[in-house]
Amino acid sequence: MLRLLLLCGILGCGADHAAPLTFTMLQRTRVFRGNSLFWGNASLDGQLSHLLEGLNVTQVLPLEPPDIWTRRQREVATYLTYFSDLVKLFSKERPINYTQSLSCHLGCHLFPNGTTHSFYEVTLNGTAFLSFHVPNATWQRRWPGQHAVADYAEKELMKYPVTTQTLQHFLNTTCVGILRTQSARTGKQSARSHAPLVLGLILGTFALLGMAVGIFLCTGGSC
User: Fold this and answer.
1) Among 40, 89, 149, 164, which has the minimal tally of Cβ within 10 Å of its Cβ?
2) What secondary structure does DSSP assign to 112-166, as a single string?
3) Inside any domain, residue 138
4) Is this prediction's pTM over 0.85?
């Protein structure tokens, strides 16, 4: 929660009428000796909307009816369980006896003059690893100096539509569309109608994160 407040302080969430509308998400995975730990959160215009702890994702704001949300929770838990099983399999083939922490930070801003900015950043063990250049849907290596795994991950992520064009659409169209709709309304937005889109972003990020961690574990730290 402190991290979220600091982020909002930097972005000026809710500070005044000139502050940009924002959607941000932070998702972290820690892997150690075949075990995976997940946590993270999502916020819409500075309001905490979703919270991930372990295999359970909770909607902090009542964005969807209970029956629909229960189905969403099952979908997330199923994916994370599958991901955890893959990590265990990878670790048996190529054991790594040190902790790896992968963090994904994404979002979009809608500024008062109508301009927008979207971003997606990945860090590995606290160091910039990769970033996604949204305008032309390309991945860029951010690791300082030579790093064979970062080079390999960049090439792999560029191979698939889901990690290029689909991700670009999420950030440029879906995310920004949520903010434009909110900006056009008076009072509180009808967040319920947008909840599936927000969850789509969350699930899309999990999928990308799974691929990135899988690449790193499969290579065992060398390509």
Assistant:
1) 89
2) TTS-EEEEEEEEETTEEEEEEEGGGTEEEE-SSS--HHHHHHHHHHTT-GGGTHH
3) yes
4) no
